[in-house]
Design brief:
223 residues, elongated, two-stranded antiparallel sheet, mainly alpha
Length: 223
């Protein structure tokens, strides 16, 4: 079990546990907020600048939605429970909360994995070379334009920096972190973890059956 597997187990396990402890309403509000804010941050990566720079940028893409989700979930549950009283027994509320929030936690894991897979698609030109040339950067910029939802994992600014440097001299992959820290983190940390994960293939397999958002994808391959 690698870090991706551990994260999948923790997120889904927490979804079930939080749903059991807090019932149906509050956790659903929190997880719904996470999905919405994750989409906003992923498509507007400049918002990640709110998070301290010491945190790796791909992780910051997840941290900001998580913080918003906690606040909305707590406030929403407090307000809802003070105004409405659901005709549910405590045990039934716990069971419904565990089932619903466990399922929504699975959806969250699937959506985040889709973003990581999309980033892998955009960065695939790097897997076939030892140094980065302008042609590879151009290819990645075109792929990013086709997949704007992964801008949080593949910042356009970093691709622009690579384009400027590679037009002067090739950029060795070992030097990628000097010009593109987020892309370097993905290539050297997230891609290998995804490629060796045991649970990620199961999540994308069953997630493909979800209505509206489900689609068949292939996990990124290592260098």
């Amino acid at each position: 079990m690698n870090l991706v597997d551990l994260a999948i187990v923790v997120v889904i396990g927490l979804g079930v546990l939080i749903g059991w402890r807090n019932g149906l309403v509050g956790p659903l509000l929190a997880e719904g907020t996470f999905l919405l804010s994750y989409w906003i941050v992923a498509t507007h990566p400049s918002l990640v600048g709110i998070i301290p720079t010491g945190i790796p940028r791909p992780l910051a893409v997840l941290l900001l939605p998580a913080a918003l989700a906690l606040v909305v979930g707590f406030v929403g549950r407090t307000f809802f429970m003070s105004v409405f009283r659901l005709p549910l027994t405590r045990t039934l509320d716990k069971l419904l909360g565990a089932a619903a929030n466990g399922a929504l936690a699975f959806v969250i894991v699937y959506v985040v994995l889709l973003g990581m897979v999309g980033a892998g698609t955009v960065l695939d030109p790097l897997t076939r070379v030892r140094s980065i040339q302008p042609s590879q950067v151009t290819a990645m910029q075109m792929l990013l334009a086709e997949n704007p939802q992964v801008a949080g994992f593949v910042p356009a600014g970093e691709l622009g920096q690579l384009a400027a440097v590679s037009s002067v001299h090739p950029v060795a992959l070992a030097q990628l972190g000097q010009y593109a820290q987020v892309i370097n983190y993905y290539e050297n940390t997230l891609r290998p973890q995804l490629a060796t994960s045991r649970l990620a293939p199961l999540v994308v397999q069953y997630g493909a059956r979800l209505p509206i958002i489900g689609r068949h994808v292939t996990l990124p391959q290592p260098h």
